[in-house]
Design goal:
The longest helix is centred in the middle third of the chain and has 19 residues, at about 220-235. By secondary structure, the protein is of the alpha/beta class. The protein has a nine-stranded mixed beta sheet with strand order 14-13-12-11-7-10-9-8-15. A six-stranded parallel beta sheet has the order 3-2-1-4-5-6, with helices on both faces. The N and C termini lie far apart (about 55 Å). Strand 5 (about 130-135), helix 6 (about 140-155) and strand 6 form a beta-alpha-beta unit. It is globular, with a radius of gyration of 24 Å. Helix 1 (about 15-30) crosses helix 12. It has helices spanning about 15-30, 45-60, 65-75, 85-95, 115-125, 140-155, 170-180, 210-215, 220-235, 245-260, 380-385, 390-400, 410-425, 440-445, and strands spanning about 5-10, 35-40, 75-80, 105, 130-135, 160-165, 195-205, 270-275, 290-295, 305-315, 320-325, 345-350, 355-365, 375-380, 430-435. It is built from 14 helices and 15 strands. Bound molecules: 6-O-phosphono-beta-D-glucopyranose. The site of 6-O-phosphono-beta-D-glucopyranose has 6 residues, from helix 9.
Amino acid sequence: MRADALVLFGGTGDLAKKKLFPALYEMEEAGELEIPVIGVASSKWTQEEFRANAERAIRDRIKNIDEVILKRLLDELYLVVGDYRSPETFELLRDQLSAFKLPVIYLAIAPDMFETICKGLARVGITQHARVVVEKPFGRDLTSALELDDSLKKILPEDQIYRIDHYLGKESVEDLLVFRFANTLFEPVWNRNYIASVQITMSEDFGIEGRGKFYDGVGATRDVLQNHMFQVLTMLAMEPPIDLTSKAMQDEKIKVLSAVRELQPEDVVRGQYVGYLGEDGIAADSDTETFVAMRLFIDNWRWAGVPFYMRTGKKMAVTTLEAVIEFKQPPRILFSESESSQPMPNIVRFRLGASDGVDISLQAKAPGARLVTDCVDLTVEFAAALGERKEAYERLLDAALEGDHFRFNRIDSVLQSWKVLDPILKNPSKLHPYFAHSWGPSEAIELVAGGWNLVGKVSHIHTQTSLGSAS
Ligand code: BG6
């Protein structure tokens, strides 16, 4: 059954502004919403201020607004103001929801309030007939995730919980599955016999953008590596699911995460950009990483011995999200006249962020009399080839309203990802400073045998990578 109301805890917050209101507009336009949206917030805003804030958020991010659709959405926005710890807030919300049978309650707030809010909802009976969407990160390590799960379980059955990770809503990330399992060309070589390494980069050229207080308590590992980057990793490494049910997908994900070898301190490099400590909401002696790079191994038959490298950071050289699969060198028997004419390995580069697509680097015969090779790229821009796709949050909100768990995380894979990271969260490695708009600390560059495969089409970047060193 489709939900008949949407409640947004954190309705005046950053996520609502940047992602949720624009997604709601798109849904209204597509005829997928048509229900009231009730914000809950501790900020003492009036309903008019709440609507004006939503309107600004939508106008800032959506081109060619249809004023009739916008007005229809804004007219259906309501706000409940109150402290999340106070029972009255939940009584007000219960009254507001009295006419609705199946609300979706979206907790777009910091995870330390999930339990308090769910208890508040349960006390007034809302959880009996609601779906609850919880944002990432779910906990801050294995122990706290287990505790959070235990306390939520007492209030809500698993089928009413939707653990969101918006990377599961990205069409480009889902495409990894299609690319691997709908093309005979790739799957036979997608293993340790042919693949030399896998590199995943999620870099952002901007900083923490006013989210200091939240970010300083979290850091890059918990903010994006444990969730978004692990989703990309599992899509690249998992076995084919037996079918496209949520269960089959989750069963394969958990298998691959369970095969990750225990991380050692030398597998991880943490960094913090210079200037971070001076930003609003950041502790003067903060040890929080704004960059993390990692090498991990998946000890199973498909991947034994193949290094998977991952890096993510704020204030990096460019904003990009990509996965690079580097194949092993072909034999050099025929084309090895000199060092420079030796064939390069094939590379498949998935561009997963804005202007997503795929580039496949192949060798072709270089012009001229000699039989030597040159590198050529086969490039596809998905938007041009396939048309524009929906934004992740629009797809996920729609799925939660519909009651479809396919694009949400099951608890065992969340716990398993914390289990992988637990050793390095318990014993964080040394923090290295790096200059803003670089590729992070030089130690992260040294982590990768042969170096990181340079992010596609970027040659003009600032290459000073670490304090006092340039490369
Ligand atoms: C969020 C993180 O979950 O994902 C942010 O909290 C990050 O720090 C964002 O910037 C990145 O999302 P996207 O879709 O722009 O890659």
